[in-house]
Amino acid sequence: MAEKPWGGRFAEKTHDLLEKFSESISYDKRLYPYDIRGSIAHCKMLAKQEIIPQADSEKIIAGLEEILQEIESGQFQFSEALEDIHMNIEKRLIDKIGDVGGKLHTARSRNDQVALDTKLYLRDTIKDVINLLGQFRSAIAELAKNNSDVIMPGYTHLQRAQPVLFANHMMAYCDMLQRDSERFDDCLKRVNVLPLGAGALAGTTFPIDREYVAGLLDFPAITRNSLDTVSDRDFVIEFCSASSILMMHLSRLSEELILWSSDEFDFIEISDAFCTGSSIMPQKKNPDIPELTRGKTGRVYGNLIAILTVMKGLPLAYNRDMQEDKEPLFDTIDTVMISVQLFTEMMKNIEINKGKMFAAAGGGYSTATEVADYLVRKGLPFRDAHAVVGNIVKYCISKDIAQVGDLSLDEFRGFSDSIENDIYEYVDLVKSTINKSKLFKIDDAGV
Q1: Are 377 and 370 in contact (CB under 8 A)?
Q2: How far apart are alpha carbons 205 and 99 in whole angstroms?
């Protein structure tokens, strides 16, 4: 039983099935640089506080740095029997430098150690995600800028409603992504708090210096309650929640790109580099990135629900159930990062069919609201104006007239004597769209 660091009180060998059931090294090995960085900081503190000799600290740190090189060069052999990244590294350290390696775990538990590793990892990840979102927003803003004169139909209920600038439509996603960035940045505040020092749950009797460790690891704050420290996964849940909202935004954009690239809409052309074909239909060009992203959104939602479910009934403090936080977290991170990167590149390579968009923008009597607003300016209450224009639209449908602006002045005046020749200024597709857009800073990407 000596191979297990915790095996002193056990008389029987761990069952082989339990080894496989309980190991986490197959997925938590990605935490290795953070585990080593945290261990080096902890070791420096132990020496500073004279809990271990300085010479031992230097030997341990040198060993950890060598292990880091072994892992990064592919020479390190991970073992399922050693359960997790912490014990794999500790075992290798003891093999390399002898029993002095066992001093590293003084005043520390795997419970506060894994919280530290996860926070260090997530801190870097959040910064990467925010950076990727900035690049994504820039790509969208550039697409909007390059097509600033394009008019398209705006929709409500997926029915043509009023004409809008294509730039206005795209910049809506920039605003969504800005909120996503803000959510991740706010999550970072909860992540960026040092957990080390809580031990298993009750702290330690050793005279450790938590503030010193926090400084070494660039944490602006330290946790206040030892039980909460080791049993808290709010920061993981919060990250997965922000990721779910981000993926929802990507899924909404995906749905529009899928519709717009269809022959029925023909508003855009997605580059061949971001599409695939059919194994049986040679003519097919499928928008796989939007479709896969739309599907993977449900996967990220599932990860959030999985972690919430794991945590919902746990008493204080640490419980082994919490090991189940990592696979959903890691999968969410991987899914979000590749999705945002792909969308950024795809948006740089989308062609806009301006003519199709403009033609569609004039359909569905899309300037009818402008006629109602015109009548209000002439003194009619809006509800009365609304009724008048409803009758105008009904007339257009019965006469197979495509746009209200195609009516003659006499036809207009048949519905209201208030209508004069200047009505055509208001129902002009381009002028009405541009005038409405002036209320908003469409060209302000905020990036």
Answers
A1: no
A2: 22
H or E stretch covering 90:
helix 85-97
Half-sphere exposure of 225 (CA within 13 A, CB side): 6
Looking at residue 50, its pLDDT comes to 98
Of the candidates 281, 248, 206, 205, the one whose C-alpha atom is nearest the C-alpha of residue 48 is: 206
How far is residue 247's CA from residue 261's CA, in Å, rounded to a whole number?
20
Cα atoms in the Cβ-side hemisphere of radius 13 Å centred on 301: 12
> Domain end: 301, 331, 359, which one?
359
Selecting among 138, 262, 278, 432, the annotated active-site residue is: 278
Identify the CA nearest to 38 among candidates 133, 137, 104, 130.
104
How do strand 193-194 and strand 221-222 relate by DSSP bridges? parallel
Q: Tell me which of 157, 279, 398, 408 is the catalytic residue.
A: 157
pLDDT per residue as tens digits for the range 365-415: 999 999 999 999 999 999 999 999 999 999 999 999 999 999 999 999 999
Whether residue 238 contacts residue 59, with contact meaning beta carbons closer than 8 Å, is answered with no
The answer to whether residues 339 and 297 belong to one domain is yes
Residue position matching structure tokens 């159930």: 321
Residue 6 placed within a domain: no
Query: Both ends of the chain: CA-CA distance in Å?
Result: 58
pTM score:
0.93
Query: What domain range includes position 393?
Result: 364-437
Please indicate whether residue 157 is annotated as part of the active site: yes
User: Are 170 and 244 members of one domain?
Assistant: yes
**Helix or strand or coil: residue 160?**
strand
Q: Per residue in 62-80, pLDDT tens?
A: 999 999 999 999 999 999 9
Q: Where are the alpha helices (DSSP H) in 270-418?
A: 288-311, 326-347, 354-361, 368-377, 382-398, 409-413
Which SS3 state, helix, strand or coil, does residue 154 take?
Answer: strand
Peptide bond into 368 cis (omega under 30): no
Give the per-residue pLDDT at 12. Answer: 80
Q: Longest C-alpha distance within the chain, in Å?
A: 100
How many contiguous H segments (helices) and E segments (strands) does the chain have?
18, 6
Q: Is residue 443 part of a domain?
A: no
